[in-house]
Amino acid sequence: MKRAFVIGHPIAHSRSPLIHNSWLRVYGIAGSYEPIDVTPAHLGEIFARLRSGEFVGGNVTLPHKEATYRLCDSVDALATRIGAVNTLTASAGHVHGANTDHYGFLANLDQQAPGWSEGPRDAIVLGAGGASRAVVVALQQRGTGLIHILNRTPERARALAAELGAGLVGGSLAEFARLAPKTGFVVNTSAIGMHGSGFEDLPLDLLPATALVTDIVYTPLETPLLAAARARGLNVVDGLGMLLHQAVPGFEAWFGTRPEVTAELRAAIAATLGQ
Prior knowledge:
single chain; 275 residues; six-stranded mixed sheet
C-alpha cells in the first residue's frame, strides 16, 4: 500500500488529509495519507524515511517549505524560481521537490472566475512572504501587467520585486490608494485575515468596478478583505480552491490517478472550516 503525508508544525489544522483520503475512497485506491507533526530539528528524519521507501511522497506546509527546498536531491524549475517546495516525490532513494502552489492559485481562479486573466491589467499583491513568491510567479506566467508588491515592511517588498525580475515594483501598503484606480486584480498573500484580523485603511472603493479581489487565506472562508470587497460590489474569489487544486499534482504523482476538484469535495472541506 502506498503511503503519503503532509508535514508541518503545527499540523492538526491541515485539511490536506481530508482531501487526499477523500480521493483515495472515490477512486478506490489502496493507499493512505497522514498528517505528521515535524519540528524543524527533525525535518531530516522525514527525508530518511522517504529515501528508505516508507513513503512515496508528501506535502509540506509551514514552516518547512524553504528548508525542504534545500534538502531535496532535485527540484523542478518552478520551485527553484519560487525558492520553496510544497510537494515531495520519492523513488529509488531519490527525493524530488516541486511547488504546486502556483498551479493551485491559477486553477482556483480559472475555475471560479473564468477569463480573469484576459487582457493586460495591473495587479496588487499584498504581502511579501513565502506565499507571495508563488503567487507573483503565477501572475508573471499569465502575462499580468505591472505587479505591485505591497508590504508593511516595504524594504522586503522591494527586495522580492528585485529578485523575481522585470515588471515588479515593491512598496508599502500606504501606496494602495494611489495604485488602486489602475488596478484590476488584488490578492492577499499575507496571514492578515486569519482569526478575524483585517487590513486598516485599505480603500477598496478606489478600485475599478470590474476589479477582482482574492485571498489565499481560507479560514475563515470569507475574510474581512473579501467581505469588504463584496460589500462594494467587486468580484471576489476565496482561497479554498487554491488548497484543493494544489493537491492535484501530488496525488497524481503518488497514486497514479489525476483527481478532480468537485463541488462536492469543496462543500465537504468548507463544512469543516468552522471546526
